[in-house]
Specification:
By secondary structure, this protein is of the alpha+beta class. The chain contains 6 helices and 8 strands, in the order αααββααβββββαβ. It has a domain of about 120 residues: endopeptidase fold (from Nostoc punctiforme), CATH 3.90.1720.
């Protein structure tokens, strides 16, 4: 009997000890994980997120602002073009498209009226009429009709009759000379935006870009005829 009582008391003491130790072990293990640096790491990680978020917000705001400025500028350009187009003549609109410029930049009405009369006329060596015309004859006809100036008949003689200038000095009405068949053998009239009008062997009277590879390769020089650069404004 006494032995059973002693055994029971021992069991109670043992169970009590285990229940006491378990909470102690649990409590001790928790602070260990906290004190291992996880808390500090977590704080730093959150701080980094905050810093990246601020940077992202700043970048986004900057991008939105730049986009808004570009859209505003685009809208202003469109409005300006519409306004200039509404006040422009059909002739200005037509040649502004060919010259890749704004209609308001075309001020010499008489020049473009005369060009338009001949535009598309086929090329014919020695020709001087609407059935066919060559480059120097076309230049001579335009000069007579627009500026009231009589030019020599050939491209070579026209070159010799002009004041030679640099391409950086070009103005509307200046002449451009090319070597296409040996010596000065082709001529056109400079307009603007690197474009010139001439009687081309391939396309007839047309507008070309002086920096096209062919014309750039065969370019000789530019010349100015006195009294040829005074604009006659569109009405």
């Amino acid at each position: 009997m006494v032995k059973q009582i002693i055994t029971g008391i021992a069991s109670i003491v043992l169970l009590g000890s285990c229940s006491t130790l378990k909470p102690l072990n649990f409590i001790n293990s928790k602070p260990a994980s906290v004190s291992s640096g996880n808390s500090d790491t977590k704080v730093k990680f959150l701080d980094n997120i905050d810093m990246q978020s601020d940077a992202a917000k700043t970048t986004t705001k900057s991008s939105v602002k730049e986009t808004a400025v570009k859209e505003e500028k685009k809208a202003e350009d469109i409005l300006a073009y519409r306004n200039s187009t509404e006040s422009a003549s059909s002739l200005q609109i037509k040649y502004a498209a060919l010259l890749n410029t704004d209609p308001s930049q075309l001020q010499n009405q008489l020049l473009f009226e005369n060009i338009d009369e001949w535009y598309g006329t086929r090329y014919r060596l020695g020709g001087t009429t609407k059935t066919g015309i060559d480059c120097s004859a076309f230049v001579g006809v335009i000069y007579a009709g627009v500026f009231g100036i009589s030019l020599p008949r050939t491209a070579r003689d026209q070159y010799n009759a002009t004041k030679h200038i640099s391409r950086t000095e070009l103005k509307e009405g200046d002449l451009l000379f090319f070597n296409t068949r040996g010596g000065v053998s082709h001529v056109g009239i400079y307009l603007q935006n690197n474009k010139f009008v001439h009687a081309s062997t391939a396309k007839g009277v047309t507008i070309s870009d002086m920096f096209e590879p062919y014309y750039l390769q065969h370019f000789i020089g530019a010349g100015r005829v006195k009294g040829s650069t005074v604009p006659v404004a569109f009405r």
